[in-house]
What does this fold into?
Amino acid sequence: MQGIATAAEWFIGLFQTGGATFMSLVTGIIPTLVVLMTAVNALIALIGPEKIDKLGEVAGRDGAAYYPLRYIVLPVLSVFFLTNPMAYTMGRFLPEKYKPAFYDAAVSYVHPPLGLFPHINPGEIFVWAGIAAGIETLGFGLGDLAIRYLLVGLVVIFIRGVVTEWITSIMWARKETAA
It folds into this structure.
């Protein structure tokens, strides 16, 4: 009988823990995201959606000359100002064929600037803090590491954006051929 009672307590405890987790989301991250989304929409309204659309239109032009705008400037601005996870919404201003590559570039840039701009991805600051603790233990400064991490991140997001765009175009061409 004791085993059944223990199992029943564990079973209801599982749902109580789930409920507590849900309430922490309702009182924690969800209001923050709602306010952030409201602020971003207000900022877009103040700047003018047509200007934001224009930036996306310019970034969405064909040709290698627009790669830096599409896969460095746009992701960096969106990650810096909108932070993780709102940064990915900036892709909505690009043509469909560039959205996967923009997302890849933006999602790849939420870690590199943490050493200089921890507001970008505060939920994962522990990654930077762990690396920083090791570097400080070795007697090195963090400034050089933070700058290098940020700069290497720019190179990586550019490469990832271009390669993902290339892969996406191949996949869509195959899909159109098969249809």
About this structure: Residues 91 and 121 are 18 Å apart (CA to CA).
